Amino acid sequence: MITDQYGQMIFDEDDLCNFVMQGQDVTKLKLMVDKTVDFELAATVLEDPNSLLLWSFPVDSNQSVIEFDTGLQNHWHMPDEYKQLDIAEHVLSLCKSDTELQRVGHELLLYQERDLFNLLRYLKYLVDLMRENNLIWGVGRGSSVSSYVLYLLGIHRIDSMYYNLDIAEFLR
Predict the structure, then answer these.
(1) Between helices 98-113 and 117-132, what is the axis angle to 10°?
(2) 26 closest CA partner among 3, 10, 50
(3) Do 28 and 98 belong together in one domain?
(4) Domain residues for 156?
(5) Does 101 lie in the same domain as 27?
(6) Do 93 and 15 lie in a common domain?
(7) Which of 150, 146, 144 has the alpha carbon at shortest distance from 163?
(8) Tens digits of residue pLDDT in 46-97
(9) Whole-structure pTM over 0.70, yes or no?
(10) Using only C-alpha atoms, what is the Rg of the chain?
(11) Sequential DSSP letters for 82-105
């Protein structure tokens, strides 16, 4: 395994074989794999080589870190049902009062202005995945607790409306 200039871990054939030998189900992992991997050799290790989930984002060695990051912002790795989710409609459906609707509407406009709807979709996916696997995460931390939308999605457990926290603290 090597780490490239962007901090990504890139695995080779030996790494894949080691994962299998350690009993890890590589079909459930999303790995960035070196382009030189001999998939025919890997197929001898895996029963179904087509089930290996590989993620590859083309990297131009001349691109800046900002260009690289921008490219990644357009490639969210989550199931299609979450990619297609109308996150605004979903969050609005969680509101129980007109006050909550107003707060969420205001926050959603701020998220939309910053092009963060894919982030919200991914956070919904992450919370669902953690709940499905009985994982525990924190109560809340930092300025993110000022977002009522994140509270409704289950990212944190601090009711920012109850504590009168301003969303501007989070989305500066």
Answers:
(1) 120
(2) 50
(3) no
(4) 80-169
(5) no
(6) no
(7) 146
(8) 555 444 444 455 566 688 888 877 777 777 778 889 999 999 999 999 999 9
(9) no
(10) 20
(11) HHT--HHHHHHHT--SHHHHHHHH
